[in-house]
Amino acid sequence: MIFVPTGLLPKQACPGLAQVGNLMTTYPFQNPSLSTSKRIADLLGRMTLAEKIGQMTQIEKNSLTPELVAKYALGSVLSGGGGYPKTGNTPQDWVNMIGEFQKAALETRLGIPLIYGVDAVHGHNNLHGAVIFPHNIGLGAAGDLDLVKKIGRFTAHELLATNVHWNFAPAVSVPQDIRWGRTYEGYSENSDLVAELGAAYVCGLQSSGVSASVKHFVGDGGTRWGSTHPIPWIPRMWQADDDRWCMDQGVTDVDETTLREVHLRPYAAAIAAGAKNIMVSYSSWNGLKMHGHHYLLTDVLKGEMGFEGFLISDFLAINQLHEDYRTCVVQAINAGLDMVMVPFDAAQFIDTLTAAVEDGAVPLSRIDDAVRRILLVKFEFGLFERPFADPALYTEIGSETHRAAAREAVQKSLVLLKNDNMLPLSRDTSTLLMAGEAANDIGLQCGGWTIEWQGKSGAVTTGSTLFQGVFEKMGGDVAYSPIADFTPGAVAEVGIVAIAEKPYAEGEGDNGNLALTAEQIALIHKVRPHCNKLLLVIYSGRPLIITEQLEMCDAVVAAWLPGSEGAAISDVLFGDVPFTGKLSFSWPRSMSQVPLSALISSGEPPLFPFGHGLETC
Ligand code: GLC
Fold it and tell me: Is the CB of 220 under 6 A from ligand 1?
């Protein structure tokens, strides 16, 4: 071992030697030709308790400086929803921000690289200009495994171009109640379809060098309406006095057979596809919060299912376990959690866990197991050899190739619910009008988890809209009024109305009334007399109640949340590409058929069944 005090020898002077902190040395763990298990064993054997606990700590970037990364030898940093750099939201801003944190990590005593995580749930969606793919509900309707793999690969490229090696996706939730604000993060109400698509995404993402985080384990999509109870010691937004946050993070009231057959199945498929990280759900099962559930986290997932990777908590989630923070930490780590998304107070978590190990409440063997699992992922994803961004991928951000894949996904995701001799449209349509702000609003067509955590309307990022696509197909001969202000008595051959749910994420979208709003209904009524044939295009994160509006429309298309490439919808409307999408969720006739269990027990057919989707040639 050669010791060279910092500053005496420029780092590039010994290219054959790895720079580890202030040491020019070659530990076995730095040797990529050794087996991963040997590298883990060597490194773990050199780590202090402080360094081990540092690896188990994940902090949100706004609560951090590079100095703190070094001080605590942190294992991970994250951007929460919308967590773009304070300096700006260009790829270079991301590279610089994460690069500073990584440099600090590499200069610690053992130079263990950190792993940076983001929610890139439909593309690198926090980054302005990245391609935004359809949310999972649309990919469920497309049902194309190869396409989902491709989306995973392309998303990974845009992430790696900006120093991100870990994606908190895919959600393999199996939503059983579409009142849930996270329905659209799920591919389907059908567990088998979720399992196939989730595994495909894991394959695509990880084949390109980014670790997936399959979430949220387990049963997040099965919580009961109204089961989210206020947590008095956590004064956070999830204690609203309306429908918001009333089922997200709630109680999954199902027997173990149902839990296994509906909600656990996608995890087996994801693990088989190579998933090495799983995020634990805020929800509860059998009277216990998942974050403290030793039976499901350790006995079932790590034991019975042989999961070798590591478990990450959700955001501030362990704090929900108990009023006393030490109890939270001890319960969660002993239950099988390996890394904690703290995400604010590093010192409090680290000091609490250190004391718990020192007084024996948490055995050192549990710490070593957690760190071993974390190091496995860091070695397997090449972080020790390639801890920084890959500049060669820079040009792929927002690239035409990625946009073409997004357009294909939009085209395949569209579900034609009704078509009374209206679609496909002809470019020779004599007069065509369009109405609805949603027809020309990228923010509305992208939905939540887009630039901002909750998403928002407006030109939030680059891309194209339905209006722009129709305008191009019609050679500009389109009358467009967001509020349907057309000449009294004017009647066009074709009318297109686009409506959208306002963007939301997580429990903010919990909603007990999925009927169209009065404004949306009024808009349809206002356009109706102005056209011979009326098409309704719906942007939504779930099926909505449209039964009473159906007879007013000659055609209805469910477009879900298509992302940045909205113009692709016009390709299908005008017959350049056929309609092929199929419902991956049952479409209820009324709220009496929600949740799915109510629909099944009603004995009545839904308005449109799972698998419904008219085709055009
Ligand atoms: C959120 C979500 C989770 C996300 C995490 C980090 O609360 O539940 O899906 O990955 O925090 O943003």
Answer: no
